[in-house]
């Protein structure tokens, strides 16, 4: 696997938060690579810094020290706008809370990233329907998130994450709010995408979920403790 | 789709958005209604001065009193006949009227009353006024103003005695608005010949001359011509342009109108503050959504535009409804104060409606700017984690 290209590379990354007068290292000197097409699972207890690590990989946040490289591009040098471009073109997010836009229908939620990218309407609609079909929720296309079950909402969220054909899918406890059965459906859908070549990085504290991954790393107190 | 997103966000808090719109409606309505009313008030006031802008009045100059033999026994100054003839033969003059006037007592049956008597040629009277009753004829007869006739119950054929001369009323004039030249409502008008006979003024000049120039731009040319000829050696006459008065009235009205509109604008300001308030609450409530939008690829400018679009939608709805209602508001104020709404439907009204809408939109955009900017400055991760 080491012959594969690194799509995400972290070089001695630290993230410091100030809590009162104290400095807290949420991520404390992590260097690692995520290779193209792999399914990586980051495990750790809550507060171990795993979500912060995922946010740094997803360019939602900037490291205090060190570098994050996406496809070999050092994000340290990039403007807010260029970071947004990277998120939009290369990365899809799946959150524990689904984070769908409540005023938009399932269909429109999937359309939104393409709208932001400037994809023409016809193409947007075709792709959105295709993704909802893949996720097995085409029937719910015109329903608002509040009318959908948690499992269905998460499937809409995955469809949305895939809208712009990202190279990387970043999932933060995607099954955390779901029952076992829905969780399984969601994990199978994510695995399917990985089989199609999408690099998946998944954060969880659930060993059952970690079984889907090819590689698992554990972190504690902002440091990698086991590869 | 951005429009749909913005529109649905506003619908999400329907009552709040509706209240903000009501604020804008009231503000726009207040500004536009006041504007419309002031404009109608001005139009109504100026309507009595219409068609006088090409009119120039010429009075004797005061300094002539001491240097020239223009002083009469009664102590009133006149424009002597030679000077008058020179003036009306100047270029640019389209028409003119020589006028003599005085205030005197007259008698009808047993009643003695004070009255202004004008001496004018018949064609000048016909040019200036219309008869309500009878026919305008000045040979051995007079015409009387509307108010005078009304007060003394005069009819065509009635007789009035002025300075021992008996005059037959040939016509009663229609009521006119305030004028700067001849005010006939409470006056008697006789021919110049009769005037000289009644007051024994055959050798005296005229109290003033009305000159109509060929076109508006000739007013100042004519004035220059008077200064170069009649007034060349010494100032014999004063030239008085009615256009200037109209301009001054216009200026005064527009100042008052601006002032009233500014006061009405305070209500728009209040509406602006309420929009600022609801938009700020909206950004706070939607912090996580903003974070999501940013995570899936919305630029900061996109967030800014989305929030401005929401403000704009509130502004457009409020301003359009407000502008339409201002027509009703203008009508109400017109009826209340002017007792007439005949000037309501005009281009000026439309202008003030558009102006009201413009200020309504401007207010909402300015109020929306800060919340929109604030939303766009959120950090995506912090926004996502916001509880």
Task: Write a brief caption for the model.
The complex is a heterodimer of chains A (227) and B (387). Chain A is α/β, with parallel strands linked by helices and 227 residues long.
Q: In terms of topology, how is this protein built?
A:
The complex is a heterodimer of chains A (about 230) and B (about 375).
Chain A: E1 6-19, E2 22-35, E3 39-43, H1 50-57, E4 65-70, E5 73-74, H2 80-90, E6 91-94, H3 106-117, H4 121-134, H5 150-162, E7 168-172, H6 180-195, E8 199-204, H7 207-210, E9 215-220, E10 223-226
Parallel strand pairs in A: 3-8, 3-9, 6-7, 7-8
Antiparallel strand pairs in A: 1-2, 1-4, 4-5, 9-10
Helix pairs in contact in A: 3-4, 3-5, 4-5, 5-6
Chain B: H1 2-12, H2 14-46, E1 55-60, H3 64-67, H4 81-88, E2 93-108, E3 111-119, H5 122-128, E4 131-134, E5 141-144, H6 146-152, E6 159-162, E7 165-173, E8 187-190, H7 192-199, E9 208-213, H8 218-228, E10 237-241, H9 242-285, H10 287-295, H11 300-338, H12 347-376, H13 380-385
Parallel strand pairs in B: 3-8, 5-7
Antiparallel strand pairs in B: 1-9, 1-10, 2-3, 2-6, 2-9, 4-7, 5-8, 6-7
Description:
The complex is a heterodimer of chains A (227) and B (387). With 227 residues, chain A is of the alpha/beta class. Chain A has one domain (38-65, 80-226): Rossmann fold (3-Layer(aba) Sandwich). Helix content of chain A is 34%, strand content 29%. Chain A has seven helices and ten strands. Chain A has helices spanning 50-57, 80-90, 106-117, 121-134, 150-162, 180-195, 207-210; strands at 6-19, 22-35, 39-43, 65-70, 73-74, 91-94, 168-172, 199-204, 215-220, 223-226. A six-stranded mixed beta sheet of chain A has the order 6-7-8-3-9-10, sandwiched between helices. A four-stranded antiparallel beta sheet of chain A has the order 2-1-4-5. In chain A, strand 4 and strand 5 form a beta hairpin. In chain A, helix 3 runs parallel beside helix 5 (150-162) and helix 5 runs parallel beside helix 6. The radius of gyration of chain A is 17 Å and the shape is globular. Chain B is of the alpha+beta class and 387 residues long. Chain B is built from 13 helices and ten strands. A six-stranded mixed beta barrel of chain B has the order 2-3-8-5-7-6. The longest helix of chain B has 44 residues, at 242-285. Residues 72-76 of chain B have low confidence and may be disordered. Classes of the chains: A alpha/beta (227), B alpha+beta (387). Chains A and B meet through helix 2 and helix 3 of A and helix 1, helix 10 and helix 13 of B.
């Amino acid at each position: 696997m080491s012959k594969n290209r690194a799509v995400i590379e972290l070089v001695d990354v630290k993230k410091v938060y100030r809590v009162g007068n104290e400095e807290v290292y949420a991520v404390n000197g992590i260097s690692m690579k995520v290779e193209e097409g792999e399914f990586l699972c980051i495990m750790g207890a809550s507060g171990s810094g795993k979500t912060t690590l995922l946010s740094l990989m997803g360019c939602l946040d900037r490291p205090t020290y060190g570098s994050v490289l996406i496809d070999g591009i050092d994000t340290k040098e990039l403007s807010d706008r260029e970071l947004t471009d990277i998120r939009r073109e290369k990365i899809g997010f799946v959150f524990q809370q689904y984070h769908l836009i409540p005023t938009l229908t399932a269909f429109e939620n999937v359309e939104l990233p393409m709208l932001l990218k400037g994809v023409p309407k016809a193409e947007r609609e075709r792709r959105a329907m295709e993704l909802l079909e893949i996720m097995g929720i085409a029937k719910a296309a015109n329903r608002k998130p509040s009318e959908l079950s948690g499992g269905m909402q998460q499937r809409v969220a995955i469809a949305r994450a895939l809208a712009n054909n990202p190279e990387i899918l970043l999932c933060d406890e995607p099954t955390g709010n779901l029952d076992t059965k829905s969780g399984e459906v969601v994990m199978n859908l994510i695995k399917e995408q990985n089989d199609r070549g999408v690099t998946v990085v998944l954060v969880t504290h659930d060993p059952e979920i970690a079984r889907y991954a090819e590689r698992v790393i554990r972190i504690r107190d902002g440091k990698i403790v086991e590869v | 789709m951005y429009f749909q997103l913005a529109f649905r966000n506003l619908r999400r808090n329907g009552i709040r958005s509706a209240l903000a719109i009501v604020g804008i409606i009231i503000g726009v309505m207040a500004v536009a209604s006041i504007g419309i009313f002031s404009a109608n008030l001005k139009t109504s006031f100026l309507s009595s001065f219409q068609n006088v802008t090409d009119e120039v009045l010429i009075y004797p100059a005061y300094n002539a009193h001491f240097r020239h033999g223009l002083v009469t026994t009664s102590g009133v100054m006149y424009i002597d006949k030679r000077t008058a003839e020179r003036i009306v033969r100047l270029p640019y003059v389209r028409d003119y009227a020589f006028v003599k006037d005085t205030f005197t007592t007259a008698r009808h049956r047993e009643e003695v009353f004070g009255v202004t008597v004008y001496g004018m040629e018949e064609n000048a009277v016909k040019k200036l006024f219309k008869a309500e009753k009878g026919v305008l004829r000045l040979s051995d007869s007079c015409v009387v103003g509307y108010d005078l006739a009304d007060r003394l119950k005069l009819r065509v054929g009635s007789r009035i005695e002025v300075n021992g001369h008996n005059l037959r009323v040939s016509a009663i004039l229609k009521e006119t608005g305030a004028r700067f030249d001849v005010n006939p409502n409470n006056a008697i008008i006789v021919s110049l010949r009769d005037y000289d006979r009644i007051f024994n003024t055959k050798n005296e000049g005229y109290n003033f001359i009305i000159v109509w120039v060929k076109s508006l731009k000739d007013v100042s040319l004519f004035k220059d011509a008077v200064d170069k000829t009649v007034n060349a050696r010494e100032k014999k006459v004063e030239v008085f342009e009615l256009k200037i008065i109209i301009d001054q009235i216009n200026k005064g009205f527009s100042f008052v109108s601006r002032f009233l509109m500014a006061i009405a604008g305070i209500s728009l300001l209040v509406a602006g503050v309420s929009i600022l308030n609801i938009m700020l609450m909206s950004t706070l409530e939607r912090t996580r959504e903003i974070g999501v939008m940013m995570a899936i690829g919305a630029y900061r400018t996109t967030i800014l535009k989305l929030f401005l679009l929401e403000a704009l939608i509130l502004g457009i709805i409020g301003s359009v409804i407000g502008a339409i209602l201002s027509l009703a508001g203008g009508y109400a104020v017109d009826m209340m104060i002017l007792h007439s709404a005949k000037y309501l439907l005009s281009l000026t009204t439309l202008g003030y409606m558009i102006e009201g809408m413009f200020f309504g939109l401007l207010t909402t955009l300015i109020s929306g700017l800060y919340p929109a900017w604030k939303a766009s400055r959120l950090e995506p991760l912090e926004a996502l984690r916001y509880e």
